[in-house]
Amino acid sequence: MKRSFPLAMLLALGLASAARAANEADYKAAYATAEAASKEAAGLRNQWTVTVSTLAAARKAADGGDFDRATAAAREAEALAKASIFQATSEKEAWKAMEIR
After folding, report:
1. Between 17 and 29, where is the model more confident?
2. How far apart are CA 5 and CA 71, in angstroms?
3. What is the pLDDT of residue 1?
4. Residues 34, 58: contact at Cβ < 8 Å?
5. Residue 75 and residue 15: Cα distance in Å, rounded?
6. How far is the C-alpha of 31 from the C-alpha of 46, rounded, in Å?
7. Where does the signal peptide begin and end (predicted)?
8. Is the distance from CB of 58 to CB of 70 less than 8 angstroms?
9. Who's near 26: CB < 8 A, 6+ residues apart?
10. Residue 8: Cβ-neighbour burial (10 angstroms; 0-12, 13-18, 19+)
11. What is the Cα–Cα distance from 58 to 93, expressed in whole angstroms?
């Protein structure tokens, strides 16, 4: 369960909301960062489906003009993508410890 703490921290940081209202520029910056992290996770062949759906929810909220919700969803998607990257890199070698010798 040692891996749970870093994942929880990533999610908590990604879900922390700003004290002010988000605007379109905030959304675009958050979305670009989340999309880049998602593409990195896909490159590692460990892109979580929930990340893709959260990015779609962010895009839909932005299309509706709700930049607060869109920015929050984009930050959540970024946290999910980073967690999937962490999982991919940590599991790359961790499986060896469970191998029968």
Report:
1. 29
2. 24
3. 47
4. yes
5. 6
6. 19
7. 1-21
8. yes
9. 18, 67, 71
10. exposed
11. 34
Any idea which of 33-37, 65-69, 89-93 has the lowest mean pLDDT?
A: 89-93
Torsion of CA 39, 36, 80, 45, to 10 degrees: 20
Mapped onto helix, strand or coil, the DSSP state of residue 19 is: coil
| C-beta atoms surrounding 10 within 10 Å | 19
pLDDT at 4 over 70: no
Question: Between the CA of residue 66 and those of 23, 78, 84, 90, what are the distances in Å?
Answer: 9, 18, 27, 36
